Amino acid sequence: MNKPQTQPELRHGRVTSPPSRGAIAIEQGLLGDWQVNEMEGGKNFPSLSAGPFPAPYQTDSDSVIPPADGYILSGGKVDQRDCVNFTNEELSKKLGRPFAWPLLNVDPGQTFKVTWKYTAPHVTRGYRWLITKDGWDSNQRITRAQLEAKPFAEDFYTQVPYYSHSAEMVAKVNHEVKLPANKKGHHVIVLMWIVANTGNAFYQAFDVDFK
């Protein structure tokens, strides 16, 4: 069976709970809902390369170019959505008043639950979770060097090829992950919703404080 070549309809989504950087940007009047729904960029991240998604999922649509360093949290978007990449200093300057990204209080090793709202869900390969390294610099934008080299969790559908199983590979409204057990203090979590039938993932970011 040949892989279909039709261009899929664009469909989007964002996390509604707990508050992401995108949700906070909406609250502060910096972004609209639709912009936070569309923080999409290449799904091969943290690789720098476009092209086939890694085995055993290489029959999925090829990835477009993943986000550049400094623009990771917006999925590579450099328009108004760049605000989610801002440091506290940049954010304060943009708002014209002192402001810091609010921190979600978490415990090491706890279950972290998220709720998504989808405009209309794509055929979903799964979800990937990354986190900042110990000693990362919150005064700098998030780069690959600021993140742990490997995801701390992944939740993938294993069916291949996707086009024979698309009805089963549904986007999850509610899902959860076990947070790393060895973190302390402020960290940034990057959550990717990875789409099987386009070249993109949708990026969401959370500031957490491990107690």
From TrEMBL:
<feature type="domain" description="Chitin-binding type-4">
    <location>
        <begin position="12"/>
        <end position="208"/>
    </location>
</feature>
<dbReference type="InterPro" id="IPR004302">
    <property type="entry name" value="Cellulose/chitin-bd_N"/>
</dbReference>
<feature type="region of interest" description="Disordered">
    <location>
        <begin position="1"/>
        <end position="21"/>
    </location>
</feature>
<dbReference type="Pfam" id="PF03067">
    <property type="entry name" value="LPMO_10"/>
</dbReference>
<dbReference type="InterPro" id="IPR014756">
    <property type="entry name" value="Ig_E-set"/>
</dbReference>
<dbReference type="InterPro" id="IPR051024">
    <property type="entry name" value="GlcNAc_Chitin_IntDeg"/>
</dbReference>
<keyword id="KW-0732">Signal</keyword>
<protein>
    <submittedName>
        <fullName>Chitin-binding protein</fullName>
    </submittedName>
</protein>
